[in-house]
Amino acid sequence: VQEIFLKDYKKPSFTIESVNLTFELFEEETNVTNIMKFEKLDESADLVLDAQELELKEVVLDGEVLGSDRYTHDEETLTISNVPQEFTLEIRNRIYPQKNTELEGLYKSGDIFCTQCEPEGFRRITPYLDRPDVMSIFTTTVIADQKKYPILLANGNKVHCHESFNTRHGVTWHDPHPKPSYLFALVAGDLDFITDSFVTASGNDVELNIYVDKGNSDKADHAMKSLINAMKWDEEKYGREYDLDIYNIVAVDSFNMGAMENKGLNIFNSAYVLADADTATDANFMGIESVIAHEYFHNWTGNRITCRNWFQLTLKEGLTVFRDQCFSADMNSSEVQRIQDVKALRERQFVEDASPTAHPIQPKSYISMNNFYTATVYEKGAEVIRMLHTLLGEENYRKATDLYFETFDGQAVRTDDFLWAMKEYGEFDLEHFKLWYDQSGTPSLEVEENYADGKYTLTLTQNVPNKVDGSLQKAMYFPLKIALMDKTGAVAEEKMLIISKESESFMFEGFEEKPVLSINRDFSAPVIIKHQDVDFAFLMQHDTNSFTKYEAAQEFAISILFKLMEDIESDISEYLEAFGALLELDTDLSYKALLLELPSISTLMQKQDVVDFEPLYKAKDKLSYEVAKKYEAKLLKLYFQNHEPLNSALDSKSIAKRALKNRVLSLLSALESKEIAAVAKEQYEHSLTMTDRITALDVLESIDAELSEIAFNDFYNRYKNNTLVMNKYFALLAASPREGVLDRVMALQNDEVYDEKVPNLVRSLIGVFARNYKYFHAKDGYGYKFLSDKIIEIDKINPQMASALSGAFKIYPKMIESNKKLMKATLECIVSTQGISKNTFEIVSKILK
Ligand code: B3K
Ligand code: ZN
């Protein structure tokens, strides 16, 4: 296996002025004709085209058919030496999309032909300089059977419909914007669609289409609405307009990730397009809004300005995630959005940053680029952009992004170029700040407070963990928002500190008594705060920052849970009282639903030096039970106050009521009582929304095996023809807290709905099981054995899927010895498997190191 290094980057030796592609799609094979106009930049260079597993038919250089002695062709490349300064190359090759189970390049999802080219899928379609710094103008003709594939799409604007010949027809598309090959897309199928339009700020009328499987067009309205909102938002917030006459989105069922921002032709996992109240949860609706926006925002941050090489991935991904987070915050509750973003960051990215696969947001090397579409590059990358936004302030940030767009439009650039634009309008230590791009691991900040004679001193000590290879890392530079409050909760002083040293003190004067500190407000920096002796109950009541208030509630519960782990009979009355106060709080209901959530097992696990799940579950069960017992009556009252089974509206108030009501029901489930089971049963049977049904199923599964079985059977029969909903069915069962999960998961693989070739289903059943810590980490090792067997099996079908599943083993070095031993054996079995993909090899071998 070959490792690719950032330091080895070299500019391309050729440019491609234009590329003209013709696809003849058949039931067995697809013929590709690829005509490229080249210019040589480096006199002495051979032309080395990327070509992966391609059947070459003919190579024609400036009209002359080349004999096979004029080029060399292997599994990875097509090389032609002695090419002129300028020339036209015409290549004919054949591919087999129907056999493509990796879902990279051109493949079939059900009856639909579609593509996925980022990062290196285009080389599986036709020979090319498949790298993001080669930008060219694409014209694409798609020819296929008219009856089976009435819809033929590619990037850009439709320029020509060819007269049909026999039973076949063709369409030509032209994209006037130069783009790298990873943004190429093609779709052919028999699809339904909905259409709408958007008039840009400068008056261009854009046609918007969303294509879906036959019969699904009534489920695309929310996606369309989200797209229109995103287009408007980008004009208002960033001054960015859309730049083609048409914007197409296609939903397919088999897709390795969420969606892809191909120029003018986004291809989506159908889970991020299709929704109605009966089949999608409120969270699904939010997810659609955010992914639709994310892909749309890429049109400027990613497509118009793209990455020079794949090490720069966070240039487009971190920035675009930050943009979609801000968009969702504007469309919904900004306080809830921020908490959810941080929760997601901690559950996925903090865990990654503390694992053997930790890497900087700008990695220095990779074996398989596909392994670097990570929470670090995306979500931590977004936090880094957010810090820049905080350092510059809204107005200067906008000036800086304007400058970025003006300066680099149409180019493939680096994170350094973005930072240059930020620095033009910001006063901060750029060189020091850049460490965020080069260092891995989550910094922690130890807090020490001193108060004497009206003076308050805050001493902050930063600790950045060592790199994976053991080498030391430096203190970082970041903005830290704090407030000092008096005993009534009134803010005496609110400040943005700049943290830049390993240890530093800040002094504040003029207090009559020791102020109360609220630190890392809005989560202004992605760091871990270590602060002893905090009056959490006070902050839960009085903190004026919605984020730190939430944080106090979580931290208080965490401290109590650790106390319970030491002694299960510990006194928890103070916490219970504070929780009671939260119940009375008069605040936004969706925010309240978050405040009432007890810390997740993953949150607790991250605080253990050596991970053992059993005591975590025990402590959490105990606390959950005590909370539910003490407040049963109040919780039930809150439940019924907010329970509106016949309301399936999607306005924020209705969503908030459902969120709170369902949180309360989940809390009550700790009682495992007949009464709560009856409430859940009633909710399952009579609510109109998927949100309610899912929570009810979850609750029944955890407290009443019999009722659960009845409800799950009903659910199955009702939705077995809807794969998107069946994903939920598999996921709920794989996440079950009830004994015997592994056996049931194994049996479910034989269900007629389950299909190992469909990534969504694999993620729902196998992926979710691997996050069911209780059973995945079972002491008998069967959880590990099951997953590693699956990884080896799926690796042959879809290496990206297999390497994603391998991520569940990241926790290996932190596990208690007995589990570690079991894990080691299974991991070694994976790496030593003959023919294991480089994707899976890279992840597993890093974990084992
Ligand atoms: N850019 C794509 C991700 C491609 C992943 C390739 N394995 C989707 C996105 O981030 O918007
Ligand atoms: Zn993206």
UniProtKB/TrEMBL annotation:
Domain of life: Bacteria
Domain Peptidase M1 alanyl aminopeptidase C-terminal per the UniProt entry, residue ranges: 535-849
Keywords from the UniProt entry: Aminopeptidase, Hydrolase, Metal-binding, Metalloprotease, Protease, Zinc
Record domain Peptidase M1 membrane alanine aminopeptidase: where: 223-433
Catalytic reaction equation(s): Release of an N-terminal amino acid, Xaa-|-Yaa- from a peptide, amide or arylamide. Xaa is preferably Ala, but may be most amino acids including Pro (slow action). When a terminal hydrophobic residue is followed by a prolyl residue, the two may be released as an intact Xaa-Pro dipeptide
E.C. code: 3.4.11.2
Enzyme class: hydrolase
Cofactor(s) listed: Zn(2+)
Keyword Hydrolase attributed: yes
GO biological process: proteolysis
Ranges where the Peptidase M1 alanyl aminopeptidase Ig-like fold domain occurs: 441-531
Transmembrane segments: none
GO molecular function per UniProt: alanyl aminopeptidase activity; metallopeptidase activity; zinc ion binding
Aminopeptidase N-like N-terminal domain: residues covered: 30-183
Reported function: Aminopeptidase N is involved in the degradation of intracellular peptides generated by protein breakdown during normal growth as well as in response to nutrient starvation.
Family statement: Belongs to the peptidase M1 family.
Protein's recorded name: Aminopeptidase N
